Write the structure tokens for this entry.
Amino acid sequence: MNTATTGVTFTPARRRLRRRERGLAYVLLIPSLLVFGVFVFWPLVHNAYLGFYRNPPFPGLPSTYVGFDQYQDVLTSSTFYDSVKTTFLFAILTVPVGIAAGLALAVLAHQQLRGIGIYRTFFSSTVATSVAVAAVIFGTLMNPSVGLLPWLGLTTNPTILQNPDWALIAVAVVTVWQTLGLTFILMASGLQGVPDELYEAAKVDGAGAWSRFWHVTLPMMSPTIFFAVVIGTIFAFQSFGQIDILTQGGPLKKTNVLTYYIYDTLQRQSDPGKAAVLAVALFLLTLMLALLQIRFLERRVSYER
Amino acid sequence: MGRVALDHVSKRFHDVAAVDDLTLEVADEEFLVLLGPSGCGKSTALRMIAGLEEPTAGTITIGERVVNDVEAKDRDISMVFQSYALYPHMTVRRNIEFPLRSRKVSATERAALVQEAADSLDLGGLLDRKPAQLSGGQRQRVALARAIVRRPEAFLMDEPLSNLDAKLRVQTRAELVELQRRLAATVIYVTHDQVEAMTMGHRIAVLEHGVLQQIGAPQDVYAVPNNLFVARFIGSPAMNTVSGRVDRVDGALVAQLPGASVPIPTELVAAVEASHPEEVVIGVRPEDLDFSDSPAAERGGIPATVSVVESLGHERHVACRLTDGQLVIARQDAHDAAPPEESTTYLVADPGALHVFDAASGERIRA
Amino acid sequence: MSVDARALHRRRVWSKVGRYALLTVLAIIVLFPIYITIVNSLLPPVDITRQPPKLFPTHPQWGSYSDAWNAGHMGTYLKNSFIVTFLITVGQVLTAILAGYAFAFLRFPLKRTLFVVFLATLMVPFEVTIVTNVTTISDLGWYNTYAGLAVPFLATGFGAFLMRQAFLTLPGDLRDAAALDGYGHWRFLWRVAVPLARPAVAALTVFAFLAAWNQYLWPLLITKDDRLRTVQIGLKQLQSVSIDQINITFAGAIIAVVPLVILLLFFQKQLVRGLTAGAVKG
């Protein structure tokens, strides 16, 4: 007989029951664990291992074990450095703008006007677009033969998507537009959570519209905004589709974010070893950035409890 | 400090009138209680005074100005909300300070005013805490401090005690009254609790379905209720009301109540004859009822069976059933002899303690 | 009304007009790309390239849609997307329900460790796994198949987390009451727990559907011809193939958008609820 922590005597019948419960638990978890094991954890391990092997310039020849040399070579290369810079630049161009735009629209759509619901639907509409759809639409519109942009006066020489100075900005604009719907919905839901009474108290206390936004809306929205910043940055670092469709990393590698660099290394250069190293770098970069954000930004977030 | 006046103020939502043609005036330094059940319009009236709702008709005056077109932030009033509405991300100090910041008061002056308000509400040690770290009673005091720091023309309070536990409520009631006297402030106070209304207000304004039922000093509203609604709403336990047909028995005007004919008080006979209602409602407060062994007809002895005797220590509530099953409650001092349960007795009352209402309109019949 | 009241009334009306104007301008800016896409999908190619551009199709050419659907293979792409998305969604929801139930109601050793393992999968970015996964899928012979597209995504840590939270909010006595009524775990799960956790299941379904539908990198790596391409990759393919017939590209884009619009119209509430579950709670 075993009187465990519960102080209950474990009869054989009870032990069987416990065993069955354990068995059932594992049965329920096996499907997920199987998928994770094969497609998440094994690749994670294997990827680190792949980084240790330099691939030959010609297929068919064996790859050589080089230990950390490949890591060193790849991570100190100027292409890598530029790619990281581009990735950060892309995040800076998309995350703050996207959140500000979503928040502004949400505040405007929070008013008590007749038919405001229609505007809310309009502002969330881009949630129905995918990255590919948005990229195809904008990519085609930015095609020099299409007459729309010249009519709006938005021409550059060379044309936007082939212009080293403007290409990344163009891709950023497409990304902000495509994520606007989701950001809007997130911000609008956060706004619902701000108690009306706080606005009323602020009104009675003499606060005008801007003061109410600054002293009530923003602080009460800070958890939502924080969430949006962290998740948004992670998504920005994982952006791929729009680069692939619009610029393929160019022109002059000006849109060569890490994700595209990895894809390019894998598909065009057939260099899985190098791609593995870059993937590890991307992983660590994203993780570090998220942790830094949590550490330094969460302090300024005011949770109610 | 100033007066507040509502002149024929109404608030309609589609066809429903939340506030219907309300006219009342709050004098300078007066503590006026807006009392009524939920949905009676008291909160709506308060919010219109605050400027958080727009009246569909009528004018609102604060001090010397008509403020219908003045925004809430410019009306020079303070409000204490039922849930306190403290800014959760600001410290107590910043919360109290907030109304001053919007009014461009210098930093040193602000600090002094905040300290003064905090001291008068005994919040000195809590100034650097955040609302989440305070108890319910402390939060309420912060809300009050925020309201008084500006010395506005009037204070508006929307059921500020309802979120406190019973004991704290009683204590805070007295503190609020003392605060109002000390500040010589004009206070408009909304509540559904008639005990609060009776103990705190200089005057009580009773509302029901958006219509003002009666306004007057607590004792007056208690002793002479204008209609059945006020009669039943004020007083705990509530006034007993029994309806009966008006009849003439042996030449005297009576109300036919279950089991007895109760004579109409002599001073009201003329009025009853003049308006000749078919039915009247006789009202008697529990403390005015007595027990008798004999049907003392001139004191309106109504036969009843004692149903439940509740002892509250200093007094007793005796619930009795009339012959038609209606329940009537009598109040007696603990020293008096308690009638045994299930015994039959007669309920008597002095004619002067009877209230007579027209059964159809609910209005009080006056001499 | 007094003079002041009239002036205030006028100011209020103008303020309202101003607000509607601002909202409308912003709505136009947000909707413009979609609008111009629809317009251009109905114009003959020659009208798309001319300046100034036509902003309304006077003679809508609906043929671009049938061209995109048939010759442009959008019909096939949509079918593939539906099949793959269906498989992934069903898989994720089922595995999430099973795992969530285990974590919420069952006692077993290593429970906390395993939960951390589940959450850890959210930390691993996709790019780290692609190299190996392509090889694994090819070795299994699933390259360019529905299996290859769906199987790696049949489970998520996010789903298990969501369902665990949802199951944990159910009253604890419910399980005990059901046990006394003779319900084993399996029956309790499907007859009581899941129906009560329906909002979470709905939110998860919407999420899983959206994520699967919008997948880009994996289908790009794993499919090689039009028979298997999903709508995202297919659209890219359509664009590169229809260089002279931009209206067909635009028609394809609209075709790709319509299913999501329909889905979201029906499930907007769940989407909002699912989104805020993580954010506002902090």
Remarks:
- The two ends of chain B are 40 Å apart (CA to CA).
- The interface with chain C takes residues 68-69 of chain B (CB under 8 Å).
- Residues 166-183 of chain B form the longest helix (18 residues).
- Chain B has a mean pLDDT of 90.
